[in-house]
Amino acid sequence: MARAKKIMGVDIGGTGIKAAIVDVAKGELITERVRLETPQPATPAAVLSTIKKIKKELDWSGPIGCGFPGSIKEGVVHRAPNLDPSWVGYEIVNKFKKSLGCDRLVVGNDADAAGLAELRFGAAKGLSGTVMMVTLGTGIGTALFYNGVLIPNTELGHLEMKGEDAEAFASNSARENNDWSWKKWSKQVDRYLSKLEYYLGVDVFVIGGGVSKKPEKFIPRLEKVASTVVAADMGNLAGIVGAASLAA
Ligand code: BGC
């Protein structure tokens, strides 16, 4: 029997940093999930020291994959709207490698990572055509796939509609902070998804984030969007499994 390919997956979020050792061939965690609060302010040094603690707790010295809530190009952070502003321009790959003492470390966008996990092991398994994962959480993350190939670093959570950033009216935090009913919020999500569908010809949307546990609250209310909309089914494991898969 082939040996499991093990990688530590780290999901860096605005409120929590979660990690585990993942069997990337099966898409399964092979250790407990460790979660620590994201330090505030979430500066690079503070986040890095939290990841160090987690790595120690998991007693890990192998490859690491990280999902990051922002866009990264050539190892450098370009945007991180929900973390500390000091991330912009930070050489995340080199600095993390050096400080974590890790030869193989890959960092990618958190939604791209989660989408990868759903495509390989979850709700989008086996789907072809244009598939888009949309994570509705503190922010909105998007991951675009065509016939299973990821087109990385889409930032369509910041699509502007009627002068407003989509995150301001369709993220789950907008629903919570404004105390909107599911009905009102679903209408806004419907408007947002139908715009994405129109521009990108999306065949299937996979909705992730905490709301994916309550699909009955909003999916049946989506009337404008003609594409199929399904809830992600890996829950909060998608971020960790996907992060590890980035480094596989
Ligand atoms: C960021 C994305 C990220 C998403 C979810 C957005 O604000 O711009 O890069 O994927 O939040 O964390």
Order of helices and strands: EEEEHEEEHEHEEEEEHHHEEH
- Total beta strands: 15
Count of the separate structural domains: 2
Low-confidence stretches: none
Beta-sheet strand percentage? Answer: 25-35%
What's the N-to-C terminus distance?
A: 19 Å
Mind telling me which CATH architecture of the largest domain this is?
2-Layer Sandwich
Walk me through what this model shows.
This protein folds into 2 domains: 6-112 and 238-246, Nucleotidyltransferase, domain 5; 125-232, 2-Layer Sandwich (Nucleotidyltransferase, domain 5), CATH 3.30.420.40. It is 30% helix and 27% strand. It contains 7 helices and 15 strands. It has helices at 44-57, 92-100, 110-121, 166-170, 172-177, 182-200, 237-246, and strands at residues 6-12, 16-23, 28-29, 34-37, 64-68, 71-73, 76-79, 105-109, 130-136, 140-146, 149-151, 160-161, 164-165, 204-208, 228-231. A hairpin with a 2-residue loop joins strand 6 (71-73) and strand 7. The structure holds beta-D-glucopyranose.
Features:
single chain, 248 residues, alpha/beta, Nucleotidyltransferase, domain 5, 2 domains, 6-stranded mixed beta sheet, 5-stranded mixed beta sheet, 27% strand, globular, binds beta-D-glucopyranose
